[in-house]
Amino acid sequence: MRENTFPKCQHGILCLTFDDARYTQWLPLLPEFSRFNARCTFFFDKEIDANAINAMRELIAAGHAVGLHTIHHRNADTGFAELGAEGYMAAELTPQMEACRRAGISAPFLGLPNGRSTPEIDRYMLESAGFERIRVHTGITLAKCKAFADYDDFYVDAHRAAGLRAIPSGVFGADFYGTTQANLDAAVARAARRNQLLCLTSHGISDHPGPVDVHIDMLREVMRSATRMGVRMCSFADLAELS
């Protein structure tokens, strides 16, 4: 059983999520996450092989949560249209789910590639595919991601967190997403001020980040700001424990 270090939330929640199985960059930063008491959710794409399983185990042992992100990073909206629900699952998710089950890994969370989904697909993933929580990007655009604090789309009242199964998220990073530190600080400050949940997504983490990744200094400052403002940094698994 996970230790519950997240009593009733009064100053907001920040869910940091990372995509694309960049675990060779994630794992070396486990001490950094621990330093800020940040528990994150990491979504794996590609086949879940022995290296991925070992990485998942290490992340879970450090208090984080893991989820799935499809094998081929195929958009769900076009994939469902072309293959149907069962075809998409067979091609993209069922092999990942089975690999996790065989290894005894709990990965009950889903982040669909590029946020390309529909309410019907989201409902299928929750009700038929059996995921506990999914990350959604409904109504969210790159333009809005340059000013998180200005848009209600990114926020949910923190008191709803425990029962929230579809979690809205924005994407952040220095280049492709045009994120600034001031933008992120304002976003976290709003969550703290209004006691709201904010979910942010990136990919790799590096001091030489690619165009869709986040610089370690930017991420470190986000975690520092959250800590200073009393915002709890929770994984998707932690949300069920919030009262």
Your description of this structure?
This protein is an alpha/beta fold. It contains 7 helices and 12 strands. It has helices spanning 23-26, 30-35, 50-61, 76-103, 119-127, 181-194, 216-229, and strands spanning 13-18, 41-44, 65-68, 109-111, 133-136, 155-157, 166-168, 170-171, 196-202, 205-206, 214-215, 232-233. The strands form 2 sheets. Strands 1, 2, 3, 4, 5, 6, 7, 8, 9 and 12 form a 10-stranded mixed β-sheet that branches. It has a two-stranded parallel ribbon with strand order 10-11. Helix 4 (76-103) links the parallel strand 3 (65-68) and strand 4 (109-111). Helix 6 packs parallel to helix 7. The longest helix is centred in the middle third of the chain and has 28 residues, at 76-103. The protein is globular and about 45 Å long. Mean pLDDT is 93; it is low at 1-6.
Provide the descriptors you would attach to this structure in a database record.
243 residues, alpha/beta, ten-stranded mixed sheet, two-stranded parallel ribbon, 7 helices, disordered N terminus
Short overview:
Helices cover 36% and strands 17% of the residues.
Structural class: alpha/beta
Counting DSSP H or I runs of 4 or more residues, the number of helices is 7
**Rg, Cα atoms, Å:** 17 Å
Main sheet characteristics: 10 strands, mixed
Uncertain segments of ≥5 residues (pLDDT<50)?
1-6
* Secondary structure tally: strands: 12
Question: What would the average pLDDT be, to the nearest integer?
Answer: 93
- Beta content: 15-25%
What shape does the CA trace take? globular
How much helicity do the residues have? 25-40%
Q: What is the chain-wise order of helices and strands?
A: EHHEHEHEHEEEEHEEEHE
Distance between the termini: 17 Å
